[in-house]
Amino acid sequence: MIVGFVAAAQISSASTVPAFLWSPGFSSNELKESVNYQIMSPKDLANSVLSQGGWSDLLCSERKNERTVDLAIVFVGRELHSSDVAGNKHVDPSLLNLLKASFTRSNFSMAFPYVATSEEETMENLLVSSFKEVCGHSLGVSNVAFSESCSLEGGDFKKLADLHSIHDHLVSRMEQRTKGETDLVVVCHGGFQSLKELDQQSPESEILNEVMSSVEQSGAKYAALYVSDPFKSIHYPGYKELERFLAEDTTKNASASAQVCDEVCKLKSSLLEGVLVAIVLLLILVSGLCCMMGIDTPTRFEAPQDN
């Protein structure tokens, strides 16, 4: 199934992104692993997560008594395109390995290789608004929180400043939450940042690993959704494309530098230069001797006569 997902990602366009849904202790429709190869909008993704992924039992108010999960967590990344899942060498392998491990080790998992992105709205805002629409314009969760790097419109949501705040929030909610309640936490990597801030931020794989470690340490039963939204990473929309171009150019330069003359090559070139110089000098010597031999100089001169 993973092989099929990778093969499908190889034919995807750069305008689509992947999404992964998994849960270690929650299953829906008795499907352990599945892949939806359709190209879908963020709204379609939200509908699939609610219906096929079983999140309607977690987020919609009329299903409160059927909940077996304490936390529904959404992580919006900024790095992956659909084609990157096939093994793009410019993508952080730690991120791909982390997602693969989470996906394959869970009791229930779904993959969506082709999710179309929007240039007008952020992925997190589209997902949450779609959840609200399907659930009757109100989420039936006891608590909703999101990181400050997310861009969400409307709603009285709690903001989490950093990873430490996320960890404290998860621990406190485990102590305060009553049985049958489900929380929703939305975490976004990066956000609308300058190039200087982008260089200083931690890798996405590290942030995701820290978040999932905090979730597991809290002891909460959870269901997680990862989706990428690389086009909203910074103010400069072409930066990612420029970064990829520079990375490819660096690779080409590295291969070209591998052809630079080494010590053995330098020794051979020096010997060749010496041989060429010796041949030139020998030609000059032979030419000079030939010229001297060709001059008809008398061996004896007559003595001058007296008048």
UniProtKB/TrEMBL annotation:
InterPro entries: VAS1/VOA1_TM (IPR046756). It is found in: Membrane. GO terms for cellular component: membrane. Signal peptide: none annotated. It is a single-pass membrane protein. Keywords: Membrane, Transmembrane, Transmembrane helix. The chain crosses the membrane at residues 275-295. Residues 271-302 form the V-type proton ATPase subunit S1/VOA1 transmembrane domain. This is V-type proton ATPase subunit S1/VOA1 transmembrane domain-containing protein. It comes from Hibiscus trionum (Flower of an hour).
